[in-house]
């Protein structure tokens, strides 16, 4: 029997605790003999990152507590662990950023020396060599970054190559004579301009190198095949597609099975890969055009789509013969799938929603015209088998703004989205101009226009949804974290579309971000707004703190106390401005949290606080969640 109740007040079997438990984060996966090992962040263990394996029906920690595999290279880390072919684990310990090694059941031993200024990440085992990206913080104004090899007896860390502000994704040729890697320099970001470089190795050190891409594009992920040919992805034609070339000659570059889709994305973390070469000469690849799909490209360049259900955050993790491991998110499931040679897939490791499919909202691709061109989004309507709203009532909606801003959402409802839609609150995820997944031109729409294009696009998407008769125009909220929080605050200060805003560790003053943030993003704003000090007037004009007179609707601020990317001073400045203007608000500071919330208790509290906030502002009851008092 269906119960009639106002949108937002529906009860749901998905609690905030359930949503927290379902929000597992997987960090890499490997074939180790007949086993699958994977990295997993454990919210119930204060966000500890373990490496795990399945023994029969039981899950076992290869990396036991209190050890935690987490890199801080570029602050966002990535590639924090790998293995050799015999099941020896190599990992970066969170607390000291050293590389350690162990076998299951044994105690870890260090492979790199104690050095409080050194960090490691992007670990890769290739051809009997352990490679890593090393970042050294000392008295120099910019950290020194290099590709290193690490001896397995802990006696030597050898620098193979340096010479650029940033480098990533090292790949060693099968004969061990050449190294390929991605390099870029300030003020570019890796989705703006990079080079694929190839160097000759003598005595394990790069002696000479040359760039094999133009430097005007965002080339990524070099890989070698057994014949010594170099593969990589490049967006010279407007889409990240796979290329092949003979790195030892000047033969023309070959474009492999080009498509109007991206095999590639924002290189925020080390170790991420969007394709892999197969032993039979084929390629397994992720293709993104809004949502993801995984295809197999045969040696004759014929393309077959796999049946992988994952449609978002899809990454190729490992290959063993004809077997492939791919991680990603599918409706109701986040996990790691194994893809067989025939394109069929099976879930190897995963976290499934405890709800049946009737509770999972169907993602509707939604495109509206905007001031700067088409705006792409995904609509998740209120969804419940037990409840319906009174006739004529339109639902409240919250526009979700992803961070980055050079990032992407792929149209898969996660547990956080379902937490709200199952209670009668719609969610609209917007891939505003600047997002990946729609080609270089769409990505570059934000160049020099951050605070304008993103603001206008989210407002256009929300207004378009209301004009479509799918949302209550008087009850439109907006929520986002990091760069998404900036867009939230900008939209609240400069438009009248939204009636409430939720900023998670959001940017309020772009000048403070430019001076306070870490080196990886230290020049990011050069491309998004302009270089300082020449563009200071633009920074003042764009920043929400420069338009506090525009704040009129209630705001919820959520912040990690240990955030090194967007320090708490940003949220505190917004809080003070809201208080000065008498705008209703709440500010929550979470001890022990950085940029993004990992602890179960934080995720639970944040979800319940957001729900209570929306109920308080939009006038519906929130059963089972304490009411929120606004200052």
Structure, described:
The protein is an alpha+beta fold and 631 residues long. Helices cover 16% and strands 35% of the residues. An eight-stranded mixed β-sheet has the order 30-31-34-33-35-36-37-38, sandwiched between helices. The protein has a four-stranded antiparallel β-sheet with strand order 2-3-4-5, with no helix packed on it. A four-stranded antiparallel β-sheet has the order 6-7-8-9, with no helix packed on it. The longest helix is centred in the last third of the chain and has 19 residues, at 600-618. Pfam families: Peptidase_S9.
Task: Set out the fold topology.
Blueprint: E1 3-4, H1 16-22, E2 25-32, E3 35-42, E4 48-55, E5 58-61, E6 81-83, E7 89-92, E8 99-102, E9 109-110, E10 118-126, E11 129-136, E12 144-150, E13 157-161, E14 166-172, E15 178-184, E16 195-202, E17 205-211, E18 220-224, E19 230-234, E20 241-245, E21 254-256, E22 275-277, E23 283-289, E24 291-297, E25 303-305, E26 312-320, E27 323-330, E28 333-339, E29 345-352, E30 364-370, E31 373-380, E32 387-388, E33 397-401, H2 415-421, E34 426-431, H3 440-444, H4 453-467, E35 476-481, H5 483-494, E36 500-504, H6 510-516, H7 524-528, H8 536-542, E37 555-560, H9 568-581, E38 585-590, H10 600-618
Parallel strand pairs: 1-32, 33-34, 33-35, 35-36, 36-37, 37-38
Antiparallel strand pairs: 2-3, 3-4, 4-5, 6-7, 7-8, 8-9, 10-11, 11-12, 12-13, 14-15, 15-16, 16-17, 18-19, 19-20, 20-21, 22-23, 23-24, 24-25, 26-27, 27-28, 28-29, 30-31, 31-34
Helix pairs in contact: 1-2, 1-10, 4-5
């Amino acid at each position: 029997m269906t119960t009639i109740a106002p949108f937002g007040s529906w009860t749901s079997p998905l609690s905030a605790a359930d949503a927290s438990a379902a929000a597992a984060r997987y960090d890499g996966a490997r074939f180790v003999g007949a086993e699958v090992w994977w990295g997993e962040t454990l919210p119930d263990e204060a966000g500890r990152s373990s490496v795990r394996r399945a023994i029969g029906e039981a899950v076992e920690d290869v990396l036991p507590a209190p050890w935690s595999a987490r890199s801080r290279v570029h602050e966002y880390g990535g590639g924090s662990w790998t293995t050799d072919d015999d099941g020896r684990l190599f990992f970066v310990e969170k607390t000291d950023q050293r590389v350690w090694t162990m076998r299951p059941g044994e105690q870890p031993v260090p492979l790199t020396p104690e050095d409080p200024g050194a960090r490691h990440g992007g670990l890769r085992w290739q051809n009997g060599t352990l490679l890593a990206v090393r970042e050294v913080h000392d008295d120099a104004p910019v950290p020194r970054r290099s590709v290193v090899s690490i001896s397995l007896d802990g006696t030597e860390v050898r620098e193979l190559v340096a010479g650029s502000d940033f480098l990533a994704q090292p790949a060693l040729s099968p004969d061990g004579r050449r190294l390929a890697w991605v390099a870029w320099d300030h003020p570019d970001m890796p989705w703006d301009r990079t080079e694929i470089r190839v160097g000759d190795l003598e005595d394990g050190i790069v002696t000479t190198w040359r760039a094999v891409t133009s430097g005007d594009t965002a080339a990524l992920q070099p890989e070698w095949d057994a014949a010594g040919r170099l593969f990589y992805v490049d967006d010279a034609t407007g889409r990240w597609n796979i290329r092949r070339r003979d790195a030892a000659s000047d033969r023309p570059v070959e474009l492999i099975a080009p498509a109007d889709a991206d095999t590639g994305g924002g290189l925020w973390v080390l170790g991420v890969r969007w394709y892999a070469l197969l032993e039979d000469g084929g390629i397994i690849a992720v293709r993104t055009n809004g949502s993801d799909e995984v295809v197999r490209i045969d040696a004759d360049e014929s393309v077959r789509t796999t049946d992988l259900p994952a449609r978002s955050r899809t990454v190729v993790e490992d290959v063993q013969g004809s077997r492939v491991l791919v991680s990603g998110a599918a409706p109701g499931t986040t996990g790691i799938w194994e893809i067989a040679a025939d394109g069929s897939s099976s879930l190897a490791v995963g976290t499934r929603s405890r709800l049946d499919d009737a509770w999972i909202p169907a993602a509707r691709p939604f495109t509206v015209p905007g001031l700067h061109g088409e705006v792409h989004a995904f609509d998740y309507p209120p969804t419940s088998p037990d409840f319906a709203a009174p006739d004529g009532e339109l639902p409240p909606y919250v526009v979700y703004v992803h961070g980055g801003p050079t990032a992407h959402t792929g149209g898969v409802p996660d547990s956080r989205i379902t937490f709200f839609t199952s209670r009668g609150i719609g969610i609209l995820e917007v891939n505003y101009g600047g997002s990946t997944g729609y080609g270089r031109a769409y990505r570059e729409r934000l160049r020099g226009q951050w605070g304008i294009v993103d603001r206008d696009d989210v407002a256009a998407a929300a207004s378009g949804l209301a004009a479509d008769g799918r949302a209550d125009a008087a009850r439109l909220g907006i929520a986002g974290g990091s760069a998404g929080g900036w867009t939230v605050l900008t939209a609240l200060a400069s438009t009248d579309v939204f009636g409430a805003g939720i900023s998670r560790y959001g940017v309020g003053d772009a000048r403070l971000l430019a001076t306070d943030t870490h080196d990886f993003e230290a020049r990011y704003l050069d491309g998004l707004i302009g270089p300082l000090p020449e563009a200071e007037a633009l920074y003042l004009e764009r920043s929400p703190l420069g338009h506090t007179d525009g704040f009129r609707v209630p705001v919820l601020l959520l912040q990690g106390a240990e955030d090194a990317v967007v320090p708490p001073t940003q949220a505190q400045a917004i809080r003070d401005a809201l208080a000065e203007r008498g705008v209703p608000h709440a500010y929550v500071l979470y001890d022990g949290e950085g940029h993004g919330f990992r602890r179960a208790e934080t995720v639970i509290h944040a979800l319940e606080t957001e729900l209570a906030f929306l109920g308080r502002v939009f006038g519906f009851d929130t059963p089972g969640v304490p009411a929120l008092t606004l200052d």
